[in-house]
UniProtKB/TrEMBL annotation:
<keyword id="KW-0805">Transcription regulation</keyword>
<dbReference type="GO" id="GO:0003700">
    <property type="term" value="F:DNA-binding transcription factor activity"/>
</dbReference>
<keyword id="KW-0804">Transcription</keyword>
<dbReference type="InterPro" id="IPR000847">
    <property type="entry name" value="LysR_HTH_N"/>
</dbReference>
<feature type="domain" description="HTH lysR-type">
    <location>
        <begin position="22"/>
        <end position="79"/>
    </location>
</feature>
<comment type="similarity">
    <text>Belongs to the LysR transcriptional regulatory family.</text>
</comment>
<protein>
    <submittedName>
        <fullName>LysR family transcriptional regulator</fullName>
    </submittedName>
</protein>
<dbReference type="InterPro" id="IPR005119">
    <property type="entry name" value="LysR_subst-bd"/>
</dbReference>
<dbReference type="Pfam" id="PF00126">
    <property type="entry name" value="HTH_1"/>
</dbReference>
<dbReference type="InterPro" id="IPR036388">
    <property type="entry name" value="WH-like_DNA-bd_sf"/>
</dbReference>
<dbReference type="GO" id="GO:0003677">
    <property type="term" value="F:DNA binding"/>
</dbReference>
<feature type="region of interest" description="Disordered">
    <location>
        <begin position="1"/>
        <end position="21"/>
    </location>
</feature>
<dbReference type="InterPro" id="IPR036390">
    <property type="entry name" value="WH_DNA-bd_sf"/>
</dbReference>
<keyword id="KW-0238">DNA-binding</keyword>
<dbReference type="Pfam" id="PF03466">
    <property type="entry name" value="LysR_substrate"/>
</dbReference>
<dbReference type="GO" id="GO:0032993">
    <property type="term" value="C:protein-DNA complex"/>
</dbReference>
Length: 305
């Protein structure tokens, strides 16, 4: 990646065909645009203004000395050169991320800092508070940093070294060490006034057959969310999914707005008693586990529990 300084003679990182090596930031923007194929959408996704986004892409093309995109008033397409760059840019960004994560991990180990991830309401659970209090009592010099994770990042954050351990919900993939902390039933989260609330009994899975469920974005958590939504159903029927969300707050908002329903841990009934939301008991489903998770290579994280 580009480094400061240089004489421009080709021996200091400057490209013979353009104005210098691309930055990691520019490659990230290019990858976002390659997925969205829309400058406005890609800019919003990367949280920068569209003019600034366009300038960075133009600067990237100038540095590379090639046209990466074909632009028109209606659409954006990758040129053959842009398509050829795509896997290389992906590998470069991933390598930069791995380098940053390795450095951060080493800094945390030296400084005694422990980064603990959590999804949704897991940070507020009694078992989480008990474990963290016990760890702090045993390690008064250590600093515990809590990091909220969206659904799609919960396992990747562990594997990538962004967090040292995480409080998550089952099921978790192979290669992750876990300590089960609790088992609890699922409840169905519905909009206030939903017809399911008028049943004089717990909700059965069959009562949900024709309902739309809020989905979770990200292929990496497809199997995880299928488990939570019981997809497919025992009779082989596929669940009907509505909007896809990235985190618990967005999920609850989607339910409150009538865009779908969700099966969630029973503890959320007490933690999120919000206007526009209601919860109903569900029968016939196995309980779900809460767990502390870490990579097997991080044996020191076993001491958190």
């Amino acid at each position: 990646m580009e480094e400061p300084g240089g004489s421009g003679d080709g021996r200091d990182g400057r490209s013979p065909t353009g104005g210098g090596d691309p930055s990691v930031h520019q490659l990230r923007l290019f990858l976002a645009l390659a997925e969205e194929l829309h400058f406005g959408q890609a800019a919003r996704r990367m949280f920068i203004s569209q003019p600034a986004f366009s300038r960075q892409i133009t600067a990237l093309e100038r540095r590379m000395g090639i046209a990466l995109l074909e632009r028109s008033t209606r659409r954006v397409e990758l040129t053959p050169e842009g398509r050829a760059l795509l896997p290389v840019a992906t590998a470069a960004v991933e390598a930069a991320d791995r380098l940053r994560q390795a450095v951060e991990l080493q800094v945390r180990r030296v400084s005694g800092r422990l980064r603990v991830g959590f999804v949704g309401a897991e940070a507020a659970m009694p078992y989480t508070q008990e474990i963290l209090a016990r760890f702090r009592a045993r390690n008064p010099e250590s600093v515990v940093e809590m990091c909220g994770l969206d659904f799609a990042r919960q396992v990747e954050a562990l594997r990538g070294g962004e967090v040292d351990a995480a409080f998550l919900r089952s099921p978790l993939p192979a290669g992750i060490s876990t300590l089960q902390l609790a088992l609890e039933p699922r409840v169905v989260c519905v909009p206030a006034g939903d017809p399911l609330l008028s049943l004089q009994r717990p909700v059965a899975l069959g009562d949900l057959a024709d309902r739309v469920f809020v989905d979770v974005a990200g292929e990496s958590v497809r199997g995880w969310w299928d488990h939570w939504t019981v997809n497919p159903r025992p009779d082989g029927t596929a669940v009907r999914f509505g909007p896809a969300v990235t985190d618990l707050e967005s999920l609850l908002l989607a339910v409150a707005q009538g865009e779908g329903i969700a099966l969630l841990p029973a503890a959320l009934r007490e933690l999120y008693p919000r206007p526009g939301l209601a919860y109903a008991d569900v029968t016939g489903l196995p309980p779900v586990a809460a767990a502390l998770a870490w990579l097997p290579a991080r044996r020191d994280c076993r001491g958190v529990a």
